[in-house]
Amino acid sequence: MIADQDHMRWFKSSYSSGGQECVEVAFLDEAVGVRDSKSPGGPELVFGVREWGVFAAAVAGGRFDSPGANSGA
User: Fold this and answer.
1) Contacts by 20-23 with C-beta closer than 8 Å and gap 24+?
2) How would you classify residue 54: left for phi > 0, otherwise alpha for psi between -120 and 50, otherwise beta?
3) What's 30's DSSP letter?
């Protein structure tokens, strides 16, 4: 778990449309926390800022898209 979780500001993507099955993210000075919105008291994943940047760039670049995900199939 991330230390001092009570003072963290968690947020969901604006693309979630208020849904309840989302990933929440909190940015810290030296790390990024990620958790499941359905279980806010549950475990978090913690990534270094550099690792988060590489991951976010890969997601934005379509690296993890399923084959045919954007083809309308």
Assistant:
1) none
2) alpha
3) S
Structure tokens at 63: 């690296």
The CA distances from residue 50 to 3, 17, 31, 53, in Å, are: 20, 28, 9, 5
pLDDT single digits (tens) 47-71: 999 999 999 999 999 998 887 665 5
Residues 6+ apart with CB under 8 A from 33: 2, 8, 10, 25, 26, 44, 45, 46
Domain range annotation of the chain: 5-60
Report d(CA 61, CA 5) in Å as an integer.
31
pTM over 0.85: no
Cβ-contact 34, 43 below 8 angstroms = no
Query: What's the Rg (C-alpha) of the chain?
Result: 14
Which residue in the block uniquely carries the two structure tokens 């940015």?
27
